[in-house]
From TrEMBL:
<keyword id="KW-0808">Transferase</keyword>
<dbReference type="GO" id="GO:0016757">
    <property type="term" value="F:glycosyltransferase activity"/>
</dbReference>
<dbReference type="Pfam" id="PF00156">
    <property type="entry name" value="Pribosyltran"/>
</dbReference>
<dbReference type="InterPro" id="IPR050137">
    <property type="entry name" value="PyrR_bifunctional"/>
</dbReference>
<feature type="domain" description="Phosphoribosyltransferase">
    <location>
        <begin position="6"/>
        <end position="146"/>
    </location>
</feature>
<dbReference type="InterPro" id="IPR029057">
    <property type="entry name" value="PRTase-like"/>
</dbReference>
<keyword id="KW-0328">Glycosyltransferase</keyword>
<dbReference type="InterPro" id="IPR000836">
    <property type="entry name" value="PRTase_dom"/>
</dbReference>
<protein>
    <submittedName>
        <fullName>Phosphoribosyltransferase family protein</fullName>
    </submittedName>
</protein>
Length: 169
């Protein structure tokens, strides 16, 4: 039996959410000269890239994108690898970006590399917040808040231009 797939957000709606989040990031960082968008590998990194594109259009901020490499499936996370050194984000505003905030586990791991470095601010941005938190992680920038059952799966597609959207299965 195949589970039914329902499109929650269309391509246009996702692009509107990304644009709105970018404006919110700019509003909260307009006094800064630079913002670091650290995307969790996968669709979180793609979202960080798309946010950077919009920020470059609307704001005079120097926007840098970095990737947070981690294994979302493992129970114990080895040290998190960033594709840039600590000096890149020291004394900067950092936004950790992921596609979906579900239990908060992935984002809790993703925040770890930034906790030992002095920052101006550390915020979290997601396209979908599912409200099933087991870890004390909250998103500061949310595209869409969605109440789901624990058995439902939310899929955010940003890397495939033809299927771009948010789906519930």
């Amino acid at each position: 039996m195949t589970a039914e797939i329902t499109q929650i957000l269309t391509r246009v709606q996702v692009e509107q959410k990304i644009r709105r989040i970018a404006f919110e990031i700019y509003e909260n960082n307009f006094e800064q000269s630079e913002v670091i968008l650290a995307g969790v590998s996968g669709e979180g990194y793609v979202l960080a890239q798309r946010l950077a594109e919009v920020l470059q259009q609307i704001a005079p901020l120097d926007t840098k994108v970095m990737k947070i490499n981690l294994d979302k499936t493992t129970q114990q996370q080895p040290p998190i690898h960033l594709d840039a050194g600590d000096t890149v984000f020291t004394n900067k505003s950092v936004v950790v970006v992921d596609d979906v905030l579900n239990s908060g586990r992935t984002l809790a791991f993703a925040l770890q590399p930034f906790l030992n470095v002095p920052l101006i601010s550390l915020k979290v941005a997601v396209i979908v917040d599912r409200d099933h938190k087991r870890y004390p992680v909250a998103a500061d920038y949310i595209g869409y808040k969605l109440s789901t059952t624990l058995t439902e799966h939310v899929q955010v597609v940003l890397s495939d231009e033809e299927r771009m959207g948010v789906y519930l299965q």
